[in-house]
Amino acid sequence: MIEKNEWPQEPGHIAMAVMGSGGDIKKIWNKSNEDEVEDARRTFYDMRRKGYLAFRANKDGGRGEQIREFDPDAEQMIMVPPMQGG
Amino acid sequence: MVWYNDRPTGGWRLFTSTQGTSLESDETWSRWIIRPNNTCADIVWPRWLSDSATTATDYLVDWPTRPHIDQAAFSRESFERTAHAISPQPRNPEARNRARQILVEHLSQAQKDTLEKHGYFDVEAGGRWFRIYGNSFQHNIFELDANGRKIREYCAHTSLACPREDHMLAQKFMIEASFEEFARVANIWDLRGHRRIIHESGREVPPDIISPYGQPMVSA
Fold first, then answer.
1. What ipTM was estimated for this complex?
2. Does A11 contact B at CB distance below 8 Å?
3. What is the pTM of this model?
4. Under a CB-based contact definition with an 8 Å cutoff, are residues A52 and A66 in contact?
5. Would you write out chain A's pLDDT as a tens digit for each of its 86 residues?
6. Do B98 and A5 touch (CB under 8 A)?
């Protein structure tokens, strides 16, 4: 799995954007590569354990859909840090 | 109606309203503070002091849309300068740019238009409408009634110092997909009449906040 600032352009590559204090980082993996998929799955659940929320949404105004299980076929996932009252 | 000081013509003693009325008096400030029934003290200062600030909240939050400011002349630069004073952003401009890009990617055209023109966009969830402002990452979400008036103020944001646009996207997703969870973590104020807090973060959410019409919220 590699980290970039942009969404992947290569076909078959999937990314999760992880929000953070320095802006989001895209963690990208090749869904045909089992090792990378497993790495992504581990990262997903590690972040979930830290309280991150995972959302999947279509572009152009698509409603956010919260996902609680790793979806290896989701084209884009966005990991949101835990929310708190302000 | 908003009162402002017309210093060039009258000094501190002259106050002019956006409705064209004016008041010149040595007692102006004391009237604003101690005589809330006085028409010139109708809006800003007593409410700011008493924290019953429907109008004061509007005054603070609707910064780009104050009636006596020509919106066309209110530059984006001024808006960002004000917004930065309210919620300082990461110094890395690339982080802001990425956050802006990912936010805009997940907005409809109507949402993009209002964000660009007015600094906010509206989100619908379960038949209810929420307005998310971009000038701050906190105290920036308002529930609207059927007439577009603000009836509740919500404050919930990510726990990290993310770029403001990341907060906004997270708020949008939470409201759309997990409103019950969002309402549980948010601090919530009722803006009808006196502004008063009606829910504190982490506590059980009153049923009327989650489902005011007796119907469950739509959730993913």
1. 0.90
2. no
3. 0.69
4. no
5. 877 777 777 777 888 899 988 888 888 888 889 999 999 999 999 999 999 999 987 766 677 789 999 988 887 889 999 999 98
6. yes
